[in-house]
Design brief:
6-stranded antiparallel sheet; mainly beta; globular; 2 domains; 4-stranded antiparallel sheet; 13 strands; single chain; 56% strand
């Protein structure tokens, strides 16, 4: 998934809009029993072998259209989330499985929490080398599925980038857990999971003078076992999942 985030001009009421948008989405998923799911927002027909999971094509189509505005108040706190109404209307027109799976991704409170989490990893006090701080962060996967990570951050001093001197923060992911809402509409339920972080590193470069992140990257490799149930039958499965993220500040639009 490629996302964009653009800070707009301050409004008359001193609030600042931040436009969030999904630019593209590509899914290649292999499930127990040889089931395959393929989707590309550039060619959004999708391919899903199992008819029971065919509704996911409609879910992915809507996710790839996700666009909304986060409104910040004078203290840079989230005041409101605007622009999800039309997507909610589209979600309500889908069949029940697709609707229940996608609605949580469009919930204003969840979008607010997601935005706040992404900007809450910096420490509340002065950061010094050798004095790490820790955070618990969640990743919503849709359909009532959540990955929760425990991360350790540590200030690593300065790093030159062109003519700028930036502050570097190293990130290490140490633990992960998975949960699935028992009321999830998915026909494929996860009843047990035992996941471990094989490796999880990342780094943030922060412009202290400008007061913003210049780049942020991370790579987490997760392995473990899961037990699925479908049509009343248990199916054991193995998970080998790599999550990569890259964020880079772009020049301001002219």
């Amino acid at each position: 998934m490629v996302n964009s985030s653009a800070v707009g001009k301050k409004r008359a009421d001193s609030t600042v809009p931040v436009d969030e948008k999904v630019e593209s989405l590509n899914v290649e998923l292999s499930l127990p029993g040889g089931m395959m799911i393929s989707y590309d927002s550039k060619d959004p027909h999708g391919k899903i072998d199992n008819p029971q999971l065919a509704f996911l094509v409609e879910v992915y189509k809507l996710v790839s259209q996700l666009a909304y505005t986060v409104v910040l108040d004078g203290q840079n706190k989230v005041k409101a989330v605007e622009g999800t109404e039309k997507l909610l209307e589209k979600a309500n027109a889908l069949d029940e499985m697709a609707k229940q799976t996608i609605r949580s991704r469009l919930d204003a409170q969840r979008l607010k929490a997601q935005f706040e989490q992404s900007h809450a990893n910096l420490p509340e006090v002065v950061a010094r080398p050798g004095e790490p701080w820790e955070r618990t962060e969640t990743l919503e996967l849709g359909g009532g599925q959540t990955l929760t990570f425990h991360k350790k951050y540590e200030y690593a001093g300065n790093e030159k980038r062109g003519n700028a001197t930036l502050d570097k923060i190293n990130v290490k992911t140490t633990e992960v857990s998975y949960t699935m809402d028992p009321n999830s509409p998915s026909s494929l339920k996860v009843t047990k999971s035992d996941l471990k972080v094989e490796s999880g590193t990342g780094a943030i470069l922060f412009d202290r003078e400008g007061g913003h992140v210049v780049t942020a990257n991370g790579k987490i490799h997760i392995k473990g076992s899961m037990t699925f149930t479908a049509a009343g039958q248990e199916v054991p499965g193995e998970i080998d999942l790599t999550i990569e993220s890259d964020t880079e500040l772009q020049p301001a639009a002219k």
